[in-house]
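Before our next group meeting I need something from you. Please put the record directly below this note.
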Amino acid sequence: MTKGFIPEAIMQGLLALTPEVFVLCLAFFIIIADLILPVKSKRNILDIAAVGLTGALLLTIGALFQQGMYIFNNALVVDSFARFFKIIILVSAVFMLLMSRDYKALENNKIGEYTALVVLVTLGMMLMAGASDLLMLFLSIEFVSIVFFVLVGFVKKDSKSREAAVKYFLIGAFSSAVFVYGASFLVGVTGASSFPSIQQYLIAHGISNLFIVGLLLMLVGFGFKIALVPFHMWAPDAYEGAPAPVTAFLSVASKSAGVAVLIRTFLAILPDNSNVNLILALLAAITMTVGNLVALTQNNAKRLLAYSGIAHVGFIMMGFVAYGLFGVQSVLIYTLAYLFTNMGAFAFVIAIYNKTGSDDIRDYGGLSLVSPALAFVFFVFLISLAGVPPTAGFLGKLLVLGAAIDSGYTWLAVIGVLNSVVSLYFYARIAYFMYFAKEKKITEAIKPSLSLNIIIYSSLFMVLYICLLPEQFLNLAKKTVQLLTGSFHGY
């Protein structure tokens, strides 16, 4: 049937994707605004985009618990699980645009194209979160990767930014090639590319070794997106060289989209397989250990947060390998906690950089004397990253550790606890320089702009609220997973 000139199935799909259509229209509007507005007024484009993405966020929240459905011949699925990660992606994008308002290295005449790229990469990650077909999955991952290549190297005058973009591009091209090779195995074995069709084939014919090989090869592509060891090599250089708002966005939104597709792909089409689970558990242990150990020696704040982010991926994977309802729940809570904790920390890094021109944590000396309230808030974000109560980071780690123990991976939980102890040292180093450094590099009070204050204090509120009143967030995660479209193993 058709409604007017548009087939009913397409119309239903577009209605289900109302937030994505809204974001796409916003991107075109920004491009037009960039052509019309004078150079002096172009920073307002960032505000327009932030308001527009907030509108898309409200649309997504309003539809969070609506019935899930497959659209466009099973290419995309719109369900609570996808919407949960879209909310994280949209919040990250809004925060990133607010950060960019005060990023001095961003030239006024480049703001229009910069903002359009941010909005378009947000759209790509939203599509990633709902991809339920191998072709759609590949196209959305590639689109996101290509736009991020440009954003990482956006400040052309900065040699580190250019170098980071090249490294990111080369490793991304390699991982994409391996990902496509692995996906071809799955299509060759099953004769299908959509997740429901692949699942039906596996139910009827069982799983073959060739299928497992293809899925593990695809893991290279997923590993690249979320900076899973040993596919993490791009992250430290990209984080250090990229503009600070892009680094914050990349650390949260890109990881969240990657986690979403990783969970959906593995749980939707793979029966519970102890051999694959063991491989994922080993990768989780190696990832958190490498991230934390290398972070011990870092003095650059962005580079330290890069290795910290790699370690956090290991904790997220710990919840993922647990499979089942509790495991996926723990991943959702952990990702939500990481969103606000990491964005708050990066807002401080930008505020301090704007004042001192330095990302070196040794230059944070004196912060507690001239801005004691801000120093304390920064300290709260640091202990949340370390997983210390009463913060959201503590609740997230507690849940993933519990999920691992509940699934029989006690050894992985022990490694997780030991890594949490190690991480305390390098987060404490930052606090040490803020409070006890003999050389006081910061001698004037730091006064973050209104946009940075919005990020800092809204993140602080959520970091404490999630831990102190966790019941509603646990219920949210439980309901989100229960409404997950598709048949998932282990429930």
Remarks:
- The two ends are 37 Å apart (CA to CA).
- The first helix runs from residue 8 to 16.
- Confidence is low (pLDDT under 50) at residues 487-491.
- The CA atoms of residues 294 and 301 lie 13 Å apart.
